[in-house]
Amino acid sequence: MTTLWGGRFEGAADPLFRRFNDSLPFDHRLLRQDVEGSIAWAGAIAAAGVLTPDERDRLQAALRELLSEAEANPAAVLASGEEDVHSYVESRLVARVGPLGKKLHTGRSRNDQVATDLRLWLRERLGELLSLVRSAQAALLGLAEREQATPIPGYTHLQPAQPLLLAHWCLAYFEMLDRDAERFIDAFGRTNICPLGSGALAGTAYPIDRAKLAEGLGFDAPTANSLDAVASRDFALEALAASAICAAHLSRLAEDLIVYASAEFGLVTMADAFSSGSSLMPQKKNPDALELIRGKFGRILGAFTGLAVTLKGLPLAYNKDLQEDKEPLFDATEHLALCLRVLAPLLDTLIVNRDRCRVAAGAGFANATDLADYLVARGVPFRDAHDAAGRLVRAAIARSARLEDLPLAEMKSVCPAIEQDVFSRLTLEAVLARRDVPGGTAPARVAQALRDARARLSRAEEGGST
Ligand code: ARG
Q1: Which helix (H) or strand (E) holds 160?
Q2: Rounded to an integer, what distance in angstroms lies between the CA atom of residue 409 and that of residue 157?
């Protein structure tokens, strides 16, 4: 096996070091991008007078051929034993076109090459993540629309707090994912800049039209500083940060549903298609899909942390430490994509136990705040109203009853301001309807929020892709 750098060396590399140093086992995933970048580079150095038009055409045709050949037989790429994807492409090129192939690397370094490849790769992955986030958002809206009238208990501290519409819960996650989508779009903007022409670190010594090169590869602009271009990976770190935040949102959603699906809550049931059983306990139906979504956050945040630590304190410019950027980026974004892909059909098939939801939403004294509000409307200062409602909750607990089951006389004995009309204020419908502010859970507000979210999502799906 010849290397790209053998001239300086007398002795061969130790096989263990070779294995340690080689990145082909994972950077083969950049093959298409490496070929794409090489085709553009051949064009750029031809324009700079390094290649004749005929040489350029032969190189570009050979690059295209070797790409289709490699895509048809990916195992052969791995079996080639080359050091990295760049060495692989160059050696196949030389095998096809002979000495001409050795001209391609004129004025280029693997340093600007790999930074370009990774940006080309990531911008595609960011586009994919964005569209998967949009699909998950669509699934949340689908669930919200199906369950527009379904109340659920709302929790703080995982204790019953105030009732909500299930659609309101869906819209909460819709908003989180909307911001995740914006973060991916933002990360795309800083990723889509072209390092090619930066050379090893100081800028290429050939008169390359970098703006044209960048444009030809679909980048928004060339990078502004060659040192920064080859040494920085914050574009990848940013994608991992956005991925970790998105994964954190998915893990909260998963946890909510795991709790709601437990026998004790019983608010929802997972479709068989997204549950598994136990090898020992025949009755079990476990929310494994959700548990994995919850659990993936660990590896995704781990990828962010790993790359951040790799970058910290690294002297300019390129250092081999940077080869460690790829696996976490590949792995974390792949697993986030998987989570999003599973989430959408899981939500589509979620069974909502509507009767159970309604009963639970009306339990737990979740209308106690409304009792206090009722007293406020009758002139009782809020602090006193809060105290009276709290004492009535205690009275109801003593009777194993709901607040609205207490006889009026008993209520009056705690707070004389209470009248018969209190009962109509304590119903689930009344409690929900009173949260009638923008962003509140009143059914009319939720219906409006749903329409707004639908419109926003279709606008995003039409125009907002990266
Ligand atoms: N495999 C290397 C990487 O992933 C490619 C760049 C090598 N550059 C170098 N100067 N050795 O970072």
Answers
A1: strand 159-165
A2: 33
112-131 pLDDT, tens digit each: 999 999 999 999 999 999 99
Helices 288-311 and 326-348, packing angle to 10 deg? 160
**Could you give the angle at which helices 234-261 and 110-146 cross, rounded to 10 degrees?**
30
Do the beta carbons of residue 226 and residue 203 sit within 8 Å?
yes
CA of 101 to the centre of ligand 1 (A): 20
Instruction: For the chain, list the domains and their CATH numbers.
Output: 6-106 (1.10.275.10), 112-350 (1.20.200.10), 361-445 (1.10.40.30)
465 is catalytic: no
Residues contacting 61, CB < 8 A, separation 6+: none
Cα distances (angstroms) measured from residue 32 to each of 39, 218, 333, 414:
11, 15, 18, 76
Instruction: Please give the backbone phi and psi of residue 212, each rounded to the nearest 5 degrees, phi first.
Output: -70, -40
Q: Smallest Cα–Cα separation from 103: which of 22, 44, 28? A: 44
Q: Catalytic pick from 80, 87, 135, 278?
A: 278
49: left (phi over 0), alpha (psi -120 to 50) or beta: left
CA 245–ligand 1 middle distance (angstroms): 29
- Whether 34 is in the pocket of ligand 1, judged by its Cβ within 6 Å, is no
Could you report the per-residue pLDDT of 348-372, keeping only the tens digit for each?
999 999 999 999 999 999 999 999 9
